[in-house]
Recover the amino acids of this structure.
């Protein structure tokens, strides 16, 4: 009912013919407010089908729209957004973990999305290289990896207590940090909503930086390995 009411308010204000764009943080927030933050983060961190959702930009944009200096038709309450963000991501991650414990790698095997399988390989590499605690926290800041690491941790039988402790730590740092960063910027820059699109684009670019670095590093490995193989 709450979702329907929010959607009705938005369509009444913006026109009945417009649909909500799930890939656009501004559209999601305008339609569903803080509730949309919780739902999107739950889907992104708990369900493999949510790997494409805009978690980073959604949190930052929500923080901007909570700031007193942010104008426009959409204004959110900071306590509600912080609570919704924390609840959505913590519940989603825990759900993903238990789905992984029950379904194992079959969850990933059913998907034909190449990006999911590549992210699963990176997530497993993170767990092996950094250990459980550091990998679970770092994965929060890498798109797609934060989606697949949770069920993968369950499939690899990472201890439930260890996973829960560090997913809460990483989840709170990620959600509260990005939301408060957006809020701080919105509070210090007058009429910050005028620059919303460039700012969101910057956040998306920064969030994709870890993936770009991983791709570059993966491409350099064969090039450095070939000479050694040819000249033992």
């Amino acid at each position: 009912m709450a979702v329907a009411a929010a959607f009705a308010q938005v369509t009444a204000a913006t026109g009945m013919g417009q649909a909500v764009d799930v890939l656009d943080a501004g559209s999601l927030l305008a339609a569903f407010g803080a509730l949309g933050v919780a739902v999107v983060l739950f889907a992104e961190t708990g369900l493999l089908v949510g790997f494409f959702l805009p978690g980073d930009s959604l949190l930052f944009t929500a923080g901007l729209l909570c700031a007193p200096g942010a104008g426009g038709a959409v204004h959110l309450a900071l306590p509600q957004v912080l609570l919704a963000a924390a609840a959505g991501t913590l519940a989603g991650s825990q759900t993903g973990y238990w789905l992984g414990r029950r379904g194992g790698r079959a969850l990933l095997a059913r998907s034909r999305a190449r990006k999911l399988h590549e992210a699963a390989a990176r997530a497993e590499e993170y767990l092996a290289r950094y250990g459980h605690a550091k990998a679970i926290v770092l994965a929060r800041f890498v798109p797609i990896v934060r989606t697949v690491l949770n069920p993968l941790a369950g499939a690899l039988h990472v201890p439930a207590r260890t996973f829960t402790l560090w997913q809460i730590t990483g989840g709170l740092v990620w959600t509260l940090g990005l939301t408060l960063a957006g809020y701080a910027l919105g509070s210090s820059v007058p009429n910050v909503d005028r620059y919303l699109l460039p700012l969101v684009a910057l956040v998306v670019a920064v969030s994709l930086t870890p993936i770009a670095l991983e791709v570059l590093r993966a491409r350099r490995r064969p090039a450095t390995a070939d000479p050694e193989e040819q000249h033992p």
Summary: The first helix runs from residue 2 to 14. The two ends are 68 Å apart (CA to CA).
